[in-house]
Design brief:
Elements: E1 6-11, E2 28-33, E3 39-43, E4 49-54, E5 60-65, E6 79-85, E7 91-98, E8 104-109, E9 115-120, E10 128-133, E11 139-144, E12 148-154, E13 166-170, E14 185-190, E15 196-201, E16 206-213, E17 218-226, E18 233-238, E19 244-249, E20 254-260, E21 267-274, E22 294-300, E23 306-312, E24 316-322, E25 328-335, E26 341-346, E27 352-357, E28 362-368, E29 375-383, E30 387-392
Antiparallel strand pairs: 1-2, 1-30, 2-3, 4-5, 5-6, 6-7, 8-9, 9-12, 10-11, 12-13, 14-15, 15-16, 16-17, 18-19, 19-20, 20-21, 22-23, 23-24, 24-25, 26-27, 27-28, 28-29
């Protein structure tokens, strides 16, 4: 639709994870000309844009407002915002609705623009105390965390959003202290048929599979895939031609492949690969939450030949050659060009991959060698404070 390819960068206005100076800039979405890196549009600087989804027709963008104080009221949860896009890539705010949870961190939309789906991450550090009655009839104090949930939102004819029509609250915990005290869904992903919605819950070490009823606007869970204990599954990517998906684990710097049955929604684990070098050593800095490497994002090249995973802490991109049956062969691990690479994405042609280095505040451009999958830092970059997500349109 656009005359020129546009880069959309989502940023946090608040210092949610201690990775940047909260007073150094603002949030919202910034649109850049992909050739010149000229700023085309800038909207809603008060929105903590943790994730974006571009409608298939290119006319709308949907974004999470990653917070817990929507409307300035603590405890009000987060929001989901909608925007229209004109022919020059300029954005106009349409509306924002409650995410029906706290800290919504990921969003996706179906290809027909019927529904938006979001993951509400919640917060494991903020708790409330309530009294509960035991089976013996006595009373004790118990701590309660924010809900982790996935939410479904109807999209109106004008591209704006309606309030949440379906919500699935995820419960449980896993082995790691703090990070896995409670459920933390970190992404939602549609399978290629768009009949299923998958959710990676890094708090419970599970990948949930839901059957979508588009007529009723509901989700029905049909499968829950257990992952390695303490691994923290974070993001999911489907292979473009094979019945295989890939999921990176935040807490143990690994990436896993799974077979996926598009008729039943069932999964099976295939292979595990490590995303850092054999001589990797964590940093000796107890004040840095990324002193121990955490994977962040993963993307598959449109050819289906290569997979890329970003490492926060090691500040690198791991590249793999993909073959049948989910096999992954490490090609190289290269510097991300900055610090804390939270998000990665390909341009529309698939010739370049852009790395969102959050702490250093740069978007770094890498050339993809389609013959071997290797990456070359072009030296081109966009400077943005607190960037966390990137999309193209």
């Amino acid at each position: 639709m656009n005359k020129q390819e546009i880069i959309y960068v989502g940023a946090w206005g608040a210092d949610i994870q201690g990775v940047n100076n909260p007073e150094a800039g603002d949030g919202g979405i910034k649109a850049y000309d992909a050739k010149t890196f000229e700023l085309v549009s800038k909207v809603t600087p008060d929105v903590n844009v943790g994730s974006m989804a571009v409608a298939k027709n290119g006319r709308y963008i949907y974004a999470t407002d990653e917070r817990k104080d929507l409307g300035g009221v603590h405890g009000n949860g987060g929001g989901i915002a909608s925007y229209s896009v004109d022919e020059d890539g300029k954005l106009s705010f349409l509306n924002e609705v409650s995410s029906a949870g706290a800290y919504p961190c990921y969003i996706t939309v179906d290809s027909q623009n019927r529904y938006a789906f979001a993951a509400n991450h919640g917060n494991h550090e903020e708790v409330i105390t309530r009294s509960v009655r035991t089976e013996q009839g006595t009373y004790v104090a118990k701590r309660f965390f924010d809900e982790g949930s996935i939410a479904m939102f109807p999209i109106n004819a004008d591209g704006s959003l309606s309030e949440c029509c379906e919500l699935k609250v995820l419960e449980g915990s896993s082995d790691l202290p703090l990070f896995q005290w409670t459920s933390h869904p970190h992404s939602v992903c549609l399978d290629p048929t768009e009949n299923y919605l998958l959710c990676a819950d890094k708090g419970c070490d599970l990948i949930h599979v839901y059957k979508i009823d588009y007529e009723e606007g509901t989700l029905n869970e049909i499968w829950a895939q257990e992952t390695e204990k303490g691994s923290g599954p974070r993001h999911i990517a489907f292979h473009p031609t094979q019945p295989v998906l890939y999921c990176n684990s935040e807490q143990n710097h690994t990436v896993h492949s799974y077979s996926f049955n598009s008729k039943t929604g069932e999964m099976n684990h295939l292979e595990r690969a490590v995303t850092v070098s054999d001589n990797y050593q964590p940093k000796d800095d107890p004040t840095d939450i990324f002193a121990h490497n955490q994977t962040a994002d993963l993307k598959i090249h449109k050819s289906g030949n290569y997979l890329y995973v970003s490492n926060r802490g090691d500040d690198s991109i791991a590249a793999y050659r993909l073959s049948e049956n989910g096999k992954m062969e490490l090609i190289e691990i290269v510097s991300s060009g900055g610090a804390i690479p939270r998000s990665i994405n390909f341009d529309l042609a698939g010739n370049h991959i852009y790395v969102v280095n959050q702490r250093s505040g740069t978007i770094n451009k890498f050339l993809v060698d389609e013959a071997n999958g290797k990456l070359t830092n072009t030296g081109s970059e966009i400077q943005v404070n607190n960037p966390v997500n990137i999309q193209f349109g």
